Amino acid sequence: MELKDYRGQIDEIDRELVRLFEARMGLAAEIAAYKRAHDLPILQPEREREKLETLTAQVGDDLKEPLRRLYATVFELSRDHQASALRCGLLGERLAHSYSPQLHAMLGSYGYELFEIAPAQLGDFLQSGGFDALNVTIPYKQRVLPYCAELSETARRIGSVNTILRRADGTLYGDNTDYDGFLWLLERNGGVRPGAHAIVLGDGGASKTVQTVLRRLGAQVTVLSRRGEHSFDTLKEHADAVLLVNATPVGMYPNNAERLIELADLPDCRCVLDLVYNPARTRLLLDAEERGIRCENGLAMLVGQAARAAELFTRTIIPDSRREEILCKLNGQMQNLVLIGMPGCGKSAVGRLLADRLRRPFYDADTEIERELGCDIPTFFAQHGEDAFRKAETKVLERLGKESGCVIATGGGCVTREENYPLLHQNGKIVWLRRPLDRLPTDGRPISQSVDLTALYAARQPLYERFCDFAADNCGMPEETVETILQGGTR
Description:
47% of the residues lie in helices and 14% in strands. By secondary structure, the protein is an alpha/beta fold. Helix 9 links the parallel strand 10 and strand 11.
């Protein structure tokens, strides 16, 4: 036979494989419906192992391993196809800014909708049968309790539900995966030893979840609140605490600068967890960083609770490695990229290219300052001096620093005011853009024109080093610098 004849036979086999693949996926969807109706798990590893042994026994030794790899993919596609038939979503009253659809799209192939339901329609919605599984957020975590025929032990202990499953008989089962989310956040930061003293700020719903986790692990828990047995003013009475958890919204955007307590009053504290995740670093977490205390925001809790909910939706197992991968991706998407460096080093040009590459908003701090002042910077400098300009700059950086997922180009002298660092660091990764002094233009830059650049750089270099997370040289094409930044620059 000729080569074309062999290829013709292969083409015929491939057509048959496509037909069989379509038939297999169609059956997978029917099996999914049957499993839902009979409350059976989608993931059945024992059956997959048995089937694989049967199949590999039918081929020679040289094909056993390729067949295993082939069917591992087939089984995965089949599970995903079954899961895609699930009708899942988030129940709440106002959900415009929810991260849940984005999160669950990374966790599985099931459908996921936002159900904005008014309180008066809550009962009708839950009894409608229009969903297979739900996440629940405020204000309904307690209000859904009467509609659940059964609660998990965790949901009963906490007294709230954030995950609902519709069972085969149509009744609702309530669980609370916020517990799992906080447990993962805690474990990522070393956990807590039995008998250790932990302080929880706040006594609301999130606090009850945190308390339940800590007490189950044997910690001694003290709750500080405005109206409870222990107020925030009694912090010094609990100076032996080794763990602090903020379970209040204090410090959340847009009130980023707020905090409830001073970490100086907790000399034995070894870990600070803040359930707020916007900003990425609240004032409390910035203070913990400054003191060298291990700390983390609540984004891992958000990912952890969603992952556990996805496991309940699909009856599959999501490994910690997948949770970490999703957490890393979300962190990268949410944080700002902030460019600092000498005047004329190319921050604006590189910043625009970087923003275009990442499809993010771009802010040029100098442009924003001129908009705020109503005149150009050289004119304002000449009329009011540098101190007045720096105050105006800090005001603008305070506003820009609260943004998330943006690219921000700053003025060359922003590092001369220490108060600008937390404003830029709270939500950002700070990149020091470097360029040789002989390639720095001075036109339109009042300070660069009035002082020796070598002396100016000598004064600012340690400040750039202090502010930055990493550096990137901008000595060639701006596109090359963008690639360097995306790869993490140089430490």
